[in-house]
């Protein structure tokens, strides 16, 4: 058996993780199932490492000049499109 010192790990429940990511718990479960966000099961409880949630947020960062505005939802693209372009 492997012993891992978890004293320095901050664990988040799924509700707090979803809030930090700005998504619903259902979407979080899908991300976990798809392997996008690592999670850990302790009995019937699912926990996520705070550091891995923060890392996921950083990995989702959009690099300047790479945003395809045409791929946005219509409501979002209206707020991004300059008024002179409409």
TrEMBL record:
Which residue ranges run through the membrane? none
Q: Which residues form the Helix-turn-helix domain?
A: 11-61
GO MF, any single term:
DNA binding
Which Pfam family would be a valid example here?
Answer: HTH_17
InterPro entries according to UniProt? DNA-bd_dom_put_sf, HTH_17, SinI_DNA-bd
The protein depicted here goes by the name Unannotated protein
Native source species? freshwater metagenome
